[in-house]
Fold this protein.
Amino acid sequence: MIIPVTGFQQNCSVIWNPATLEGAVVDPGGDVDMIMQAIEDKSVKVEKIVLTHGHIDHIGGAADLAERLSVPVEGPHEADQPLIDRVADQAAQFGMGEAKPVTPDKWMQEGDVLDMAGRSFEVLHCPGHSPGHLVFIDKELRLAISGDVLFAGSIGRTDLPGGDHATLIRSITEKLLPLGDDISFLPGHGPASSFGQERQTNPFLT
């Protein structure tokens, strides 16, 4: 279930196991009341909050939501700690009001396995949009949660602090695309796509 949050229309995802209703919330960037309502409507038992990276539109509601649900926060990679520490500055910069700083209960790194909604996601460190950006891959379902690394027809911004265009392109071409054209991905903004579609048509990759 996708819940677009904040003025940036960031894709906050609620992922759950239909058999047990156990699940997780990925990137609760804000609009926490709306996220809470969606969770309650589907009777999801949220076990954790997962963060792909440390930008305000992905973490702005994490501390508040974690407090209200009494669940831990996992991710991103520790390289995004400086961004997370500046969450109040980021909120002011983008006119998003106040945001509580979030302290992850667990940092993640490449090679970790993320247990979410009864499934195992491989963790890839894909810097470029931010230094500590993570992508989560369920190889069995052929599904990736890509945050702001790759979009349908575009790629993540690299003009923000810690961004680097060449590094981002390497993350995409060396870590994501080789996993297979048939992998569908859910980006941080906009519609879903597949690695194959982007490899063939994305102007930043062709």
